[in-house]
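S.,

As promised, the pyridoxal-5'-phosphate run. Input:
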Amino acid sequence: MKNHELLSTLQSSFIGTDTQYPTVDGKRGSRIYLDSAASTLMMEPAFKVGHEFLMHYASTHSDLHYSAKGASQAFEWAHKCVLEFVGASEEKYCAFFAGNGATAGFNRMATSLSKIRPERDLVLVSEMEHHSNDLPHREHSSQVIHIPCMGEFESYGGFSMECLQESIQKYGKKINYVAVTGASNVTGTITPLEEVAKLVHSVGAYTIVDASQMIAHAPVCMDDADLDVLVFSGHKIYAPGSPGVVIAKKTLLNAISPSELGGGMVDDVSLAEYVLTNNLPDREEAGTPNIVGAITLGASLDLLIRVGMDTIREKEINLIDYTWNNLTLIDGVTVYGPNPSEIPRTGTISFNIKGFDHGLTAAALNDYHNIQLRNGCFCAHPYVRELLKRELWEVDLDPDDTNVEALVERKRGMARASFGLYTTIEDLKKLIAAVSDLAFRREEIVGQYEPVGANGYRHKYYAPDAEDIFNPETVLAQSIEWSQLQHDVKMKRATKK
Ligand SMILES: Cc1ncc(COP(=O)(O)O)c(C=O)c1O
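Predicted complex:
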């Protein structure tokens, strides 16, 4: 099958795109899922691979019974899929799985890297980072310097390469590593990674790249860019329930001590001492791994390799341009970040509608239009505050005021529409129409809501029936009933014999 054909087959192979919910007008319809930057939907073929593996399920690290052998081989295959996907050669790089997402990977690397090269006690972190690629470095390094972004206010874009260069010249061999995102989770702005790595290596520092928002949207080649460490979450690339992933140069992993210890990563243990294995990735994967999740993720990556990330990027650029061009035309709508024709972006577009707090936009799009997106500061508070500065100053609120009052919370945030492979132009047409509708009927819609909690909103007259939302107990009861039926049939057949 050709790339484009495989892509269109794949686009209709996701679980949950047809899930129906009711709306305020009493109708029911399929949800439009535009919350992929938080977590993507499950790719069905990949899910099937993970599900099928359960027929053979056993833990890894043994070759002596068939199932354990199969599990070990499949787990190793998942590592290989990761390396191939990020263009990392097996000679130079090692991939390992860690925790539930990228957060685990950053904490692991920050802890380990802070213990080597004590003469280099400084870390540079861009100002546009998600907290998980900022706070672990603040916690474990002696000093973190933040690199500011270019532009100002709404069009505040990627971090400034000039500022990075200045800091690199200023701090030189005091820098242990530089942590940057591959793409922003607020504006989708893409970082020129090759350029960054060259600058960083000029003083012997390492580069840590947060690929969480880039991994499903743009091609990456660690070999070409000579990146030292890349971290991402499997659940952001169509394998919910899969682990976090770290890919790092073997030379670097050999220089650090693993920050997690336990079974599976030692050669020998006596009461007096223990000997860590030199085998990678075992040394970095203490404990029983999330084998099903890793295999599901491997399958998703394998399929995406077959389609080609260039093909996927090409398709997404059209969707980004369409959304940007049309959202920016709506009266009273502010779209944040640089114009995608000037600075490349992924399909993550944050905006606000005049007269709507970000929470109200998200609630009304859900309740009236069945459109699901996220709101708030997206765990990137410093970046979002900068983007919102002008607006907050205009209403006399200081965005840097950490003594947050309820009003600030309600104003300080955005609504974010983020795409996945399953996002269609029709979905985005509906988004544009829905945002226009909200902007046009502002007074009427705002009047239907009351505030709840710190920044939530509730429709005064409409509350969906609990039955319409997933209830694990209901599903469990149905499942038990089904198992009971099957059991009864088996018993009847057995007594007939
Ligand atoms: C850019 C970025 N980095 C890191 C993370 C953290 O990922 P996780 O919550 O899967 O650990 C996120 C999650 O939204 C993100 O968007």
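The chain has two domains: 3-42+308-468, 46-306. The CA atoms of residues 150 and 160 lie 5 Å apart.

- D.
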